[in-house]
Design goal:
mainly alpha
């Protein structure tokens, strides 16, 4: 058994799930692409469903860790904290663009896995983002506004390029998997935060 066979299985699964869909991908397809014995998949993940859940859990654990780490900066300012969260998320999505595209697309569907993620990781995400907005409004860094709608708008900005990656590539010739894109798009979201959310433009 190859030492890195688990990683090879995960990468193969992500690629196939993204292009062929979860239902259209078989264990044998994954094993063939990963160049491993199908028994290895059972050994590591028990089943295709177990592999799917591993991909989701791995993705969201790292996603939430980025938010938690940036959230520690909240005492230094809500604007600075929110920008740091956005930067971390965008670079994470960009670096893991195939996985991000697949997971974000799957999260738009009403499935058991999506519901479980919403009741765990997204519930924690809501707690952190809600606190950032509430503290920002208390300190008059942000306009008084609906926290729920502000979070919805921010998240829409985060996910759009990755859930619609083919559209960006084919229409605008932008590549969400590139470092340059993540940097430039971070700047654009920073401007949105300054001009839309803030009481006045804050230099961070």
């Amino acid at each position: 058994m190859k030492k890195n066979s688990k990683d090879a299985i995960v990468q193969a699964a992500i690629s196939l799930f993204q292009t062929s869909g979860y239902s259209g991908t078989s264990i044998r397809d994954i094993a063939k692409k990963a160049k491993v014995n199908p028994a290895n998949i059972s050994y590591y993940f028990h089943s295709k469903q177990g592999l799917l859940e591993y991909c989701f859990t791995s993705f969201f654990e790292q996603y939430l860790a980025i938010i938690e780490e940036a959230h520690l900066q909240l005492q230094e300012g809500a604007v600075k904290c929110l920008k740091q969260i956005s930067k971390g998320i965008l670079h994470y999505f960009s670096k893991n663009s195939s996985l991000a595209s697949f997971v974000l697309r799957e999260m738009s569907m009403d499935s058991q896995v999506a519901r479980e993620i919403m009741s765990t990781y997204y519930a924690k995400e809501k707690f952190f983002l809600q606190e950032v907005f509430e503290v920002g409004m208390e300190r008059k860094e942000f306009h008084l506004q609906s926290v729920s709608y502000a979070v919805i708008q921010l998240k829409a900005l985060w996910v759009m390029p990755f859930i619609n990656a083919p559209y960006l590539r084919e229409v605008f010739y932008l590549f969400p998997n590139e470092y340059f894109f993540a940097e430039k798009y971070t700047e654009e979201i920073d401007q949105w935060i300054d001009k839309t959310l803030c009481c006045k433009e804050v230099v961070v």
